[in-house]
Here is the input.
Amino acid sequence: MRLLLIEDDDRIAGPLTEGLGRYGFTVDHVRTGAAGLAEPAAAPDLVLLDLGLPDMDGLDVCRGLRARSAVPIIMITARGEEADRIVGLELGADDYLAKPFGVRELIARIRAVTRRAGAPAYVPAGALGVEAELQVQVLPAHQSASGGQALGPLAISRRSREVRVDGHEVALTPREFDLLAFLADDPGTVFSRQQIMDSVWDPHFFGPTKTLDAHVAALRRKLGDPGWITTARGVGFRLTVPGDHTEGSG
Ligand code: CA
Here is the structure.
């Protein structure tokens, strides 16, 4: 999938280009609105548009792109640009992301936008750690996925971003979902706080990670059992099945 990134700040464009590249995206990066509106050598499948550009208003770039193409557009906005987001959406942008954001969050939005646009599922399989079509099921350690019950107690669909516990849908915020999906990449494995912040929040996250604890607390509450997420004191968190004490012994 080919992305056109229109962003003047190399501190954002650099890690983004690199991170998206790791997930199999081709990124064409330009730094001005004029370059973004120039006839591209290769047509992008999706445009990532920073609204704060040096040469022209990002909203005019959005309008210009939309005037000639139905290419999906995701706006990248700074804090406090709510009015611009609304105008951008009215001008035909498909979605927006507020800085700072992580690569995984961006990929989830790309997937959602391309799906809404009726485009083929461009996001490469494995982009979020598992086959996109696969419904991830977390089963107790003693129970193999092939034997007996078809559904585990916790089912996470990365495709529809739905989460069910014992068949009941659990409503999560986008960030809570990303956090749960990240831990579910490898149930039972402890992920460090920094690993989680880097992947679920921002690749260059600095400062206090209290927000992580708040999201873990919310997830535990919504999943109906604090045992789903175990704290590894001084290290991080891992996903476990509540009441499952067979791990390691069988
Ligand atoms: Ca900018």
User: Anything to note?
Assistant: The first helix runs from residue 10 to 22. Residues 8-9, 50, 52-53 surround calcium ion (CB under 6 Å). Residues 24 and 124 are 7 Å apart (CA to CA). The helical segments are 10-22, 33-37, 58-68, 82-90, 103-116, 174-183, 193-201, 210-223.
